[in-house]
Amino acid sequence: MEHFYVYILLSKKDDKLYIGYTNNLKRRLSQHARGEVSSTKNRRPLKLIHYEYFINEVDAKAREIFLKSGAGHTQIKDKLRKTFLF
């Protein structure tokens, strides 16, 4: 069965979030770390601070879109407020 992940990275360079989704989290994190993702290559190092697991790609993509919205950013920052204290 295929599975999908929505993940959030924190840039240690600019303290901003990157939100994405993938069907292979380990591979995608390696791509980010090696600078192979154009939107994050200049924002390294990156730290995985959150991920969610889905069995349906449509649900994963919808969650990614929500988290990228203003309401989604507010929700995730509230949920992970202690993470941002470090």
Strand order in space, largest sheet: 2-1-3
SSE string, helix = H, strand = E?
Answer: EEHEHH
Q: Termini distance?
A: 37 Å
Q: Total number of helical segments?
A: 3
By CATH, the architecture is named 3-Layer(aba) Sandwich
CATH homologous superfamily annotation? GIY-YIG endonuclease
The count of DSSP E runs of length 2 or more, i.e. the number of strands, is 3
What characteristic shape results from the CA principal axes?
globular
Low-confidence stretches: none
CATH topology: GIY-YIG endonuclease
CATH top level assignment: Alpha Beta
Helix share of residues?
A: 25-40%
What is the subunit organization of this protein?
Answer: single chain
Quick one: biggest sheet? 3 strands, antiparallel
Describe the overall structure.
The chain is of the alpha+beta class and about 90 residues long. It has a single domain (about 5-85), classed as GIY-YIG endonuclease, CATH 3.40.1440. Helix content is about 35%, strand content about 25%. The chain has helices spanning about 25-35, 55-70, 70-80, and strands at about 5-10, 15-20, 45-55. A three-stranded antiparallel beta sheet has the order 2-1-3. A hairpin with a 5-residue loop joins strand 1 (about 5-10) and strand 2. Helix 2 packs across helix 3 (about 70-80). The longest helix is centred in the C-terminal third of the chain and has 12 residues, at about 55-70. It is globular and about 35 Å long. About 15% of the residues are buried. The mean pLDDT is about 95.
